[in-house]
Amino acid sequence: MANPTTKNLTFGSVLFSLEGLRKIFVELSDIVREQGELEISQLAKNEDQSEEEFKTLKDDFRENAFRLLATVNFEDGTSIHTSDPGVLHLAPSGPLIQSVYLSNITPFKHRLGVEPEHRFELYIDLRQPALFDASEIVSSPTPNFTNLSISGSRSGWRSGIEEIVRKHIIKHRPVRSFLHSGFIYDLFLMVFGLPLAFYFCWLSSGWITTTFSATNNVVISAVYVYVAFCAIWFYRFLFSYSKWAFPLVEITDQATRPAKHRKIWWAIIITLAAKLFWDLTDPYISLTRLWTLF
To answer: Which pTM value belongs to this model?
Structure first.
């Protein structure tokens, strides 16, 4: 018999649906029952057992050991532990789902006292990152614990579990995976943040010169530094707001606050881009004069 191996998978930024999660639940339950039948078929009856007792034991294993258990955590702090796929739904005025955990370990261990050789754990982390979190280093990757762990000696078990989960992922989103990875803040700071600071300084240069003309160059330089710092803080807000509005893992059916804020995010980006385009191109193609013609 082959030695058991363990495979751990992460998915990056992915999109699920409640219907897809229910199908994952049902299909994983089927494959757990299939594995159970393989193992039950290898059981040997004790000499002191009757045929009826042996049959009852096997039926007990089918019912209580080889099954799936889900834990669904909601935003209001409540949790549900069940083997019913129907638990994966949203009540019209109920709380949103925060995480989903599926595994065959707990029922087997509760019945037999040991973990099964063929086991898996699927955890779907639907938590949104905090808009501002002083405890997290801004350059750190966004914490998200969505993963799939599969253990077993049978290759059909390992590939079957993985295939079921992957085929019900609606969409992989590499751009979001990139946004939530490590040191992206620093990269975007060089590409967007510092140019934005210079732009803010240039934009406010007329006001600074007029307002502080009676002072010396040290004061004027200090004002420019403060303007640049304000621009960097605006960039930091926009970066955090982007990660909050576009979380790593989502369910299409959930109308979360970040999903509702994406229109605001796009309005900020489009307004800023339009303003920047106008200011940078107007001296060369005289957009202001063209605007007055309409």
So the answer is: 0.84
How does 134-144 read in b/e, with b if 16+ C-beta sit within 10 Å?
eeeebeeebeb
70 in Cβ contact with 77 (< 8 Å): no
Task: Show me where the domains of the chain are located.
Answer: 5-178, 182-292
C-alpha span between 242 and 238 (Å, rounded): 6
Token reading at 141: 């990757």
- Please list the pLDDT of the chain residue by residue as tens digits (294 residues): 567 789 999 999 999 999 999 999 999 999 999 999 999 888 888 888 788 888 888 898 989 999 999 999 998 889 999 898 888 888 777 788 999 999 999 999 999 999 999 999 999 999 887 777 777 788 889 989 999 999 999 989 999 999 999 999 999 999 999 999 999 999 999 999 999 999 999 889 888 888 888 888 889 899 999 999 999 999 999 999 899 989 999 998 887 787 788 888 888 889 888 888 777 776 666 555 544 544
Q: Which residue has tokens 């369910």?
A: 251
Give the CA angle between residues 18, 120, 26 to the nearest 5°: 35
The contacts of residue 44 (CB under 8 Å, 6+ apart) are none
Identify the CA nearest to 15 among candidates 248, 250, 245: 250
